[in-house]
Amino acid sequence: MADFPHLSRRGFLNRSAAVGGLLVVPGLLSACSKTDAGSADGEGALDKLRKQGFVRVAYANEAPYGYMEGKTLKGEAPALHAEIFKALGVDELKPTLSEWDGLIPGLQAGKYDVVSAGMAITAERCANAIFSEPEFISPTALMVKKGNPKKLTDLASAKAAGVTVGVMSGAVEASYAKGAGIDEGKIKTLQKPQDGADAVKGGRIDAFLLTGISLRWLAKTNPDTEVTEAFVPELDGVKQFSPGGAVFRKGNEDLRDSFNRELKKIVSDKSRYVELLQAYGFGATEIPPATLKTADLCKG
Q1: pLDDT band at residue 171, thresholds of 50, 70 and 90?
Q2: Are residues 205 and 166 in contact, defined by beta-carbon separation less than 8 angstroms?
Q3: Beta-bridge mates of residue 58
Q4: Beta-carbon neighbour count of residue 202 at 10 Å?
Q5: Which of 45, 63, 103, 282 has CA atoms 20 to 30 A from the CA of 160?
Q6: How far is CA 148 from CA 143, 145, 195, 219, 279, in A?
Q7: Please, how many CA atoms are within 13 Å of residue 91, restricted to the half-sphere of its CB?
């Protein structure tokens, strides 16, 4: 199982699989460098990509969003983006590994055409790049001991039961727990996801709070645990959807719009969405609501 070194800086609301689910894309493993042709700037970007036969995508090696397993690029974003670009007449993804903080700067510098890393849509990032419509949301869930002995379902039930909840250091879930009225003395900070799973199994905490996506992935290697149904937490009465999407250079609005048209076909078809992404822990609860729009998210 891959670790989650970037979870606390993914940027969800200003922070940030199964071994199966192989992504098969012709020529996927081709090397990519900053000298590759087809920067796809300005009008006609999609035509340029079609002519060159590939799109350069950046990933941050973060499971289950976009990562390498052996020599194969896998994850939510590559699987979804391969499907979309194939429909647009571009059959090959050329992957480039980037540190998380270098994704948008590299995009601006023309090192690749699209960020395929499940990046959260935030107003700060919208000032430097353009996002697709949301391709997923990240509802929260609770990891508990097998059998869910405290019968927890959400943060309200955790508060009522007086349980101890674990959260990732620097992650947004701590604010969700506090916003739900859980006493700060009942909120324990952990450094990485496996620490949370170990604390649940060891009885040091009653539940570990994180996105359902991440917890379902984590549970695959922690069989003595289970994950509750995902739920959307609220802060000050506002639902926290934590949406993510594909990222394009400014000036490539035509490419982004073409991408959005194909994306809409997938997110509007629940069975197709789930079939495409379930290997990476994404299900019907991760389908973004039709009313959730990037233009609104970019306003902050």
Answers
A1: confident
A2: yes
A3: 96, 115
A4: 9
A5: 282
A6: 9, 5, 19, 14, 24
A7: 4
